[in-house]
Amino acid sequence: YSPSSVRRFISTKIERVKHIRDTRHSMYGKNAPTFRLKSRKSFLKMTKKLSETPLESRLYEWKKLLTDTIGKRWTEPSEKLIPGYNLDRPVWTGN
Questions:
Q1: Do 62 and 4 form a contact (C-beta atoms < 8 A)?
Q2: How far is residue 40 from each of residues 16, 34, 36, measured CA to CA in Å?
Q3: Of 8, 53, 85, 86, which cross-links 81 as Cys (Cβ 3.0–4.6 Å)?
Q4: How far apart are CA 25 and CA 22, in angstroms?
Q5: pLDDT tens across 2-26, in order?
Q6: pTM
Q7: Which superkingdom does the taxonomy of this entry point to (predicted)?
Q8: Other Cβ atoms closer than 10 A to 58
Q9: Cα–Cα dist 20/44, whole Å
Q10: Tally of CA atoms within 13 A in the half-sphere of 23 that contains its CB
Q11: Inter-residue contact 73 to 61 (CB < 8 Å)
């Protein structure tokens, strides 16, 4: 799985697309309010639309995170289940 920070970042982009396209979304058609305090960060101002699929975005952001991390060796990111995911629960828990 990709890191939680990357998943959260992509989730906000997905919500932004829903806000723009889905008429059922609670924020559909809303405009960003004017700012009174610099410390307040509006969802509408801070997020951007998702331009490709969520999977491609997650992998891109994950690779970007890995290249920004200096001096650490990481494995190549991949969105796949770990070996043994289909085994019974007692095997995983050791019971």
A1: no
A2: 18, 11, 8
A3: 85
A4: 6
A5: 788 888 888 888 888 888 888 888 8
A6: 0.53
A7: Eukaryota
A8: 20
A9: 10
A10: 0
A11: no
> Alpha helix locations (H) across 1-95?
4-21, 43-46, 54-68, 89-93
How much is the pLDDT for 18?
Answer: 84
The 3-state DSSP composition of the chain as helix, strand, coil percent (nearest 5) reads: 45, 0, 55
Does the CA dihedral 46-51-55-61 come out positive or negative? negative
| Amino acid making up residue 26 | S
Tokens of 46: 């801070």
Query: Are 6 and 58 contacting, i.e. CB atoms less than 8 angstroms apart?
Result: yes
Q: Which of 11, 12, 29 is nearest to 20 (CA)?
A: 29
At 37-86, the pLDDT tens digits run 777 777 777 778 788 888 888 888 888 887 766 556 656 667 777 788 78
Residue with tokens 């050791």: 94
CA distances from 36 to 28, 39, 48 (A): 23, 9, 22
